[in-house]
Here is the input.
Amino acid sequence: MKKIVLIALTVLFSVKLFALDFSIKLLPGYEFATEKLFNDAGGFSVGLGVDVAPITLRERDKLYITGQFASTNFPTKDFGLQPLIDGGFGLGYTVRLMDRFAVTPEFYAGLWNYLGSDSFNTSSVSGLVFCGKVYADYYFSPSLTLSLFGGFKSFFTLPTPFLNDVQVGIGLKYSISRGLFSGNYIQIDESSVEPLFPVFYSHYTENPFGTITFVNNEENDITDVTVSILLESYMANPYTVVTIPVVERGEPFDVQIFAFLNENILGLLQPKSDSFDVTVEYSSLGNRQSVTHTLPITVLSRNSMTWEDDRRAAAFVSGKDASAQRFARQVKAVVKNDLKSSVPVNIQYAAAIFGALKAFGINYVVDPSSAFTDNVGTAAVDFLQFPYQTLVYHGGDCDDLTILNCSLLEAIGIDTAFITVPGHIFMAFDSGLSLEEGRSKVGKGYYIEAYDKIWVPVEITLSQDTFGLAWTYGAREWKKAGEDALLIPLSDAWNAYLPISVPGSDTSIDVPSREDIIKFFKEANYY
Here is the structure.
């Protein structure tokens, strides 16, 4: 039974201990004396108080300890103005009725003293003082409160009280804790932050990389809430991610986090542990407030990617890659005078580039630690090469070779696509055939009709075989996979994942000799 009562009281009062609120207050007023010793007009008083609230009840009610000092000047019938001073300690309880309104009963006890006067031959008198007041509070701001109060004060002596009076006045209370010291009133309840992939730095402007749940622990509703992000290593200025008109007291609110990152992030060659600031600005009872939280984040290397979405690899494909442009354009220039009129130009240029890569010594290299077959559809981090890297290394796995071949063809204006089948990725390119021309060939199994184009599938891992064999295998894999095969045009994938060029891509690459390019070009078979 005791446990049940304890739980009920805890839920009822929601007590928060030791969240100290330290305040000072000024209490000018007027006191009406009830004894005939004093004129009926009463006297003006000035009070000073210090309040310390260590306990919060019912989420925003305050139980506080008060210490007060007051001086009242009463006009007497024969002796003019006579001061009474008093001071003491007591308790008060603020009942917050609304965001800006509260009612506060207060009581204190202590000592009083009448100093007496040599001029009028009156002696000093002292005794106990008891005072009770009730305030009607209005919150101008979280730290400043204006009050109207009324109360009763007894200047006690034996055998009868020296004086009883009724008080009315105006109070002005200032919370030093809220006014001079910033508090964390907007707290993080939970957060989920994903690692940053430099290759998607522009993607994060409109696509979130995490979610943070905040809680409004202010004692009132907040308005005009803005949340901004700053990752100093890769951002020049904070980036505002959301604006919320109103958040009610005690309510949680979810914020998806975005970032306007700069290109400096593309220079990151190794993963890095970093941190970012999340700043919440808001208005609380008309005052602009701000709180900043710092959260950890991992920034991966520029070659990192995961395969939850196969379109992500499109960010590595760039027809503007300097090395890819130089390689593809030189090959195109070599074979342009040897083109056949009977074969679509796109197919011949694709065959020429395939043969030039063979002559260059590009090889398919299986990467057992991060192959596409292991990571497809998962959040495992893969290492993808940019086009210039595959040229420099003279090889790569299936995703690296797909990226390179697509980049080379895009560099000379030929549309390309990814083809994904279970455990593998390769490429296709636009044959240049019209739909009417291509449909008669699609039935033979060497072409794919999709997205209003006739595509040629190429198995790029057969980099040291012939273009015709790579074409045949590509068509066979597409047909074998059936409904599990997916063709993703790069032009569509780039809508979500923009292509980038990274520092170092303008690397000098020795293109194969004219003789070798022409040799492999003339060996190509077409369907």
